[in-house]
Specification:
By secondary structure, the chain is α/β, with parallel strands linked by helices. 29% of the residues lie in helices and 20% in strands. β5, α8 (180-189) and β6 (197-201) form a beta-alpha-beta unit.
């Protein structure tokens, strides 16, 4: 496992501009995205580049040394300290709404926020992305929302998992409406590049949801116009290693294959899939747990921002 960063805005106590020493960080965070040519009748603001192969797959942390992992965690903590004392001003144009699609009450709140963002009273032409399962949801009432203003049809769009995986640059900010599980779901959706997340408390737990939903209009107006402070959170990288070939479970030495002299043999195990996780990992034995014998060995690197 390894640690990577997840951005989450926090309440800002200082709305001033960045100091001169932090100008480079500000420039990097506000760097414009170079858009692709318009090929699907989408506006330029809705297009974003695909991830390059090395960006989409990333560096496998299992290939890093403990020193490299430790240095990475230390650098993230130092960056987090700096960001917590500065105000980052974002150019928000595309807003990603993440909610509990099966909770009718929260779906109604999601529609409320979407309508607020789309309204011409905002003074900005925001493009709002909501989950594709809400397109035909009676509580969300897409048809009724679009009937309020003809311009909404061009600015209300729907996302799916593949869009999050291949086009994370498309979204300027994520609004999570729910509990801690909704914030963890945002981390799962965006595996490598995570947009800034503003979490609003609408769930049973609120350790990660710092903002009250009742004040969402004031919170978002302040965040979009005055800027935000950023809190970086570390994530684990989990890689599933699969045994190669038909090995004799009674005669093989699994520990030797994983960490001993046999570990250099590429024919024993190979990486099958990797996931970046924010909080925890659940391993399930499947539908027949009593008939399953699954020895597991973990190499864990842990740190906190």
């Amino acid at each position: 496992m390894t640690a990577t960063s997840l951005c989450a805005p926090t309440r800002s106590e200082n709305d001033g501009d960045l100091s001169h020493s932090d100008s480079e960080a500000q420039q990097a965070l506000e760097k414009d995205i170079h858009h692709e040519p318009n090929t699907n009748n989408e506006s330029p603001a809705d297009k974003a580049p695909d991830l390059a192969p090395e960006e989409e797959h990333g560096v496998q942390s299992r290939l890093l040394t403990k020193t490299q992992l430790s240095d990475m965690a230390f650098n993230i903590r130092e960056l987090s300290k700096k960001l917590s004392h500065i105000t980052v001003k974002l150019k928000v144009r595309r807003v990603f709404l993440l909610t509990k699609a099966h909770d009718n009450t929260i779906v109604q709140h999601t529609r409320e926020v979407a309508q607020w963002l789309l309204s011409k009273e905002r003074g900005e032409s925001y493009t709002v992305y909501v989950e594709n399962t809400l397109e035909h949801n009676k509580q969300f009432d897409t048809r009724g929302l679009l009937a309020l203003d003809p311009s909404y049809e061009q600015r209300l769009k729907f996302w799916d998992n593949e869009l999050c995986k291949h086009h994370p640059h498309r979204f300027d900010i994520v609004l999570a409406l729910g509990g801690d599980g909704t914030v963890l779901y945002a981390s799962w959706l965006f595996q490598k590049i995570v947009p800034p997340v503003i979490p609003f408390a609408l769930g049973s737990l609120g350790f990660l949801t710092r903002f009250d939903f009742d004040d969402y209009s004031q919170t978002l107006t302040k965040a979009f116009h005055n800027g935000i402070t950023v809190s970086l959170r570390l994530r684990f990288e989990v890689t599933v290693m699969r045994a190669q070939g038909k090995l004799d479970a009674d005669s093989r030495d699994l520990i030797e294959e994983l960490i001993g002299e046999e570990a250099d043999d590429a024919h024993t195990h190979k990486p099958e899939i990797s996931h970046d996780i924010l909080n925890d990992l659940v391993i399930d034995r499947g539908p027949n747990p009593s008939k399953s014998i699954q020895p597991r060995y973990f190499g864990i690197f842990s740190s906190h921002a």
